[in-house]
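User: Modeling request: complex.
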Amino acid sequence: MNDFTFQNPTTLVFGKTSTDQLPQMIEKFTEGKNILLTYGGGSIKKSGLYDRVIKLLDGYNIYELAGIEPNPRLSTVKKGVQIVKENKIDFILAVGGGSVIDGTKLIAAASTTDVDPWDIVTRKASVERAIPFGTILTISATGSEMNSGSVITNWETNEKLGWGSPHVYPKFSLLNPELLFTLPQNQTANGIIDSMSHLLEQYFNEATNTEIGDAMISGVMKAIMKAGPIAMEQPENYEARETTMLGATVALNGYLRLGYVGDWATHNLEHAVSAVYDIPHGVGLAIIFPEWMRYVSKKKPERFVKFAEDVFGIDDDTSNEDKINDAIDAISDFWSSLGAPTKLSQVGVKEEDLEVFADKTLIYGPFGNFYKLEKDDIMAIYKAAL
Ligand code: NZQ
Ligand code: ZN
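Assistant: Request completed. Predicted assembly structure:
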């Protein structure tokens, strides 16, 4: 393993009673009364959560930013920054999924400065502080509720880029698995695929002696693969929601990558696609990740053999090549069984788009910590995924 220091400052409140703890949690982090409530396109109104939150915020001055899009947009973030500045907001409450939380993170950081929020995303401006914020999670997928990352889409330039800062960990996140009961099947599937992809990104790392990490990652992966189909079939199965929700949070809160960084190339490949086609992140990953695995396993097979053994128990006399192919097929078939597409052409991508995507991914140069992808590699993976 590499040397490391680990700290995650987000207070995680988990379970059926978590939502009701909102007033006490906010009091811990601000004495101010001006709250900005951020949310998405309306699911929280339909489910009744909005009314519940408004009641819990009794006594506060509530301002609202509604309509944060899936794949949150810079233009909406700018509206949020304006509301914070004009109303001296003391605390932001994000109610929603990764998109609402990611948009809120950039609002929180950009509101403390006069820089263009996009300069923060593109690392031209640094983040020195942020307005404190907390979250109530309504879809488990990204881990954004307990990490310091955020992904923003600039629809004017068709760029979707990740950024992060230790100042944008949520102060608290309230996770009630019952809030997932209203998720449509495809969003449940997207969340399962995204959280599993985070596990894969981290499993494929360059460090040595990562037995603890390998065991944790494969354990969480197996638990999600067992509970996921139950959550798909029985949306109100509390235990299945509990497992997939906690699984998604630990998959990307830093705890499973102690001593290594993971690869992360596939996320970059996916973001270039959803920046143009505005598809859900989980859909793009379901298509691209198996092709990344097929391509990279031919270059660096050893880790893939261990993956097949750790996650699928494939340790019999079959050849290494068969073990690898069986494991990749098992991941890909599992995602298909959840209803995910398997080809970019199914979501409208055309061959001439591929080079445009490739150039977008290369904005900071060749990438991938486990296996560095150059343009030829990227094109080969995109072509296989088409
Ligand atoms: O907008 P509303 O009406 O709320 O509907 C949302 C949205 O359409 C709906 N939804 C959420 N909770 C619901 C619900 N519908 C019914 N009942 C509920 N309880 O689900 C749709 C998708 O929501 P979204 O927040 O977009 O999903 P997700 O959490 O998957 O977030 C995706 C975004 O996060 C980024 C992705 O790239 C994408 O932009 N990521 C962020 C990461 C991070 N910050 O660490 C890492 C990830 O790898 C990822 O890149
Ligand atoms: Zn992801």
